[in-house]
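[SOLVED] Need 3D model of a two-part complex

Original post:
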Amino acid sequence: MAESPEKRRRREEDLSMKDPVDVLIIGAGASGAVVAWSLAETKMHIVCLEQGGWMNPAEYPSTGRDWEARFFGEWSSSPNVRGRPEDYPVNDDNSPIKVVNYNAVGGSTVMYTAHWPRLHPSDFKVKTLDGVADDWPIDYDALTPFFEENDRMMGTSGLSGDPLSPLTHPPMPQQPMGLSGAIIAKAMNKLGWHWWPSDTTVATMDYEGRARCVNLGHCTPACAQGAKSSTDITYWPHAVRAGVELRTHCRVREITTDENGMATGVVYYDKDGVEQFQPAHVVIIACNGVGTPRLLLNSKSDRFPNGLANSSGLVGKNLMFHPYAQIYGYVKEPTDSNRAPPTCLWSKEWYDTDLSRGFVRGYGVQFVRGAGPVFEAVVSEQKGILPWGEDHHRVFRKLNGHRLGFSAICEDLPEEHNQVTLDPVLKDSHGIPAPKIDYTISENSRKMMDHALARGREVLETAGATDICVNSPIPWGGWHLLGTARMGTDPKRSVVNEWGRTHDVKNLFIVDGSIFVTSGGVNPTSTIQALALYIADQMKQRLANLFD
Amino acid sequence: MTADNQLTRAQRDDLRTIAGMIVPASDEYKVPGADDAAIQADVLATLGRDTRLVVAALDHLARLAGQPFAELDATKRNAVAQEFRKNGGAAAATLVRVVLQCYYRDDRVLRSLGLELRAPFPKGYVLPDGDWSLLDPVRARGGTLRRAP
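Solution:
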């Protein structure tokens, strides 16, 4: 009997998997996409393994009348709530901030706010400037061309010339100010404080095959219009066209090594749940600050008994989340509610160290335009400001469509006790040990958060807001997963060197947020991607002696 | 099995009763209460992953009432409802959330709020561009980026 086409395809696929690929990338999110695209020009055989699948925008929440309800279920930002087969559980019981992420082609760029600040030059030298934490082994200038390249690839919108932010050149104009932005801007002007339209990755005009934003509502749980940049619609189509092979629904269990301490490939479960081995000459990890240490710690062997690339003992240590201090209130005038991207303006008024404030380092602010009716009702009921009973309707009409928010992204300094380890009990659907988070908010961060709340209250009251509420920290605010495989020149004090190669394994690289030395006070994705482009560029320059 | 079948008749009655206490009907705003038949049908049809916690919440409510909650007199019902809201934990919060998420997508309610009866996609919304001369004072103040060595 002749072999069926499907069986033949599987046999050929199996055979091809026996050959080592030149580069194997683990994770197809923010940084994995970038490094795949950048390395594609080398014409090497590059394979990326992604535990999730391709997204289908026709199924995104904003296409249905139940769009808000879905945020509480299968479109929750928490993998523990979503519980999709593509997700892995995280034990974050011992952390006041819960991990949020997304697992798919595009990774967490599918589910982020698209707020697009960069780290500041001073963020790379905090030890020198402020005597805390450590300096990065690279500086801002090393990343400048990669920030610019990344902004073109992701497609950013904004207004060049912010005096308190690094100079950017967004290819598209800034988002409309809207009703909320105008109220915030006037209040900030009264107080004499800095504000500026945010750089975002929301397309404000048609751009590179993406349609312009039509204000579908909150961008975070994916954009059906495709106006929000996520790497499944930006980098990946280019990378795949350039020859990168992307295998979806493939979950890596461990990285294997040989007697010389070199990575030999990975063991993974394919889309049918069958264990596979993929040999590789170079392995690149792009799983971010929780997934990356989890994988390294799960890759124990006789030669690496404490986990791979962990001779420093720092794999999983120094987890930085950015505690968010959020304060919001309600003004008499209508705000943009859910009829706009959530963020519009930022402030860097309190970004740099001023010791008279009682803490070191600082925070960026992102202003929030409002909320939709279901979110408003649910959250306000929980806060106790929306009553049950007859007065419910009157109060709801006062709240709904009148919310303004102030969210401070507080710089989280590295502390070794804030860490990712392996949970002794919890496992994912393939039986792979899940990550466990131990995290506390430092005294310095607490003071910073309190300072931010006081400033936020001044802004809101100046804008005429009442019924002011606080979330400090935002409990489901662990979007930024940083620091758990830090970069440095000293192998005793860092996991990767100044160009992303692990000190211990010379053909193993890390390109995601786990290599951050410090966190700054801004959303990190722009910097993560610039860093990934920089590392890919370093690799290309050193191809002849990459393992020396 | 649908969520409708996962709740007993008594639980459905209690759910309808507590929903009507959370959001009662209003002649003033021309809206139904959350105990409205269509809204209750939406709640039951879409319970899905929330079924377990909602059932737990209804069990807790019945325990507090000592009998079917829906059969209590108004005074006792109010006292039990207050206790349920105060100390019901995650289960009570889930029940309240599923009631509110169905209530605030009902056509009659959205119409009363002046909201359009549609999904955000594909039409979206229009935002005013705003007066960017508001940035003039920020530009005038200027400032410098902290220098790195």
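Edit: The mean pLDDT of chain B is 95.
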